[in-house]
Design brief:
The protein is mainly alpha-helical and 95 residues long. It has one domain: Recoverin, domain 1, CATH 1.10.238. It is 68% helix and 4% strand. The protein has a two-stranded antiparallel ribbon. The longest helix has 23 residues. The termini are far apart.
């Protein structure tokens, strides 16, 4: 498998690892999302000063308003974070 195929599989595996612990296996609850962020993006959470960031993030990700984050909503989050990181490192490299 190519690196991109492996990366895509890893994103699916991470979502599946945390979804369903509190209910629907196809979605993340707010608690499941918080656990995922704590375990998979610890530097992101530790650098944020707003303690209500998970609530705000969850509300923003829950595009269809069903109080759960489905895989499509999760992938949008991952893609957005990846774009932000890419932009950050591009700017760091040009200095």
């Amino acid at each position: 498998m190519s690196e991109l195929e492996i990366a895509m599989g890893m994103i699916i595996d991470v979502f599946d690892k945390y979804s369903g612990a509190e209910g629907n296996k196809r979605t993340l609850t707010k608690g499941e999302l918080k656990t995922l962020l704590e375990k998979e993006l610890p530097n992101f959470l530790s650098s944020v000063k707003d303690k209500e960031i998970v609530d705000k993030l969850f509300k923003g990700l829950d595009e269809n308003g069903d109080s759960e984050v489905d895989f499509n909503e999760f992938v949008i989050f991952v893609a957005t974070m990846t774009c932000c990181c890419h932009k950050y490192f591009e700017q760091k490299g040009s200095k």
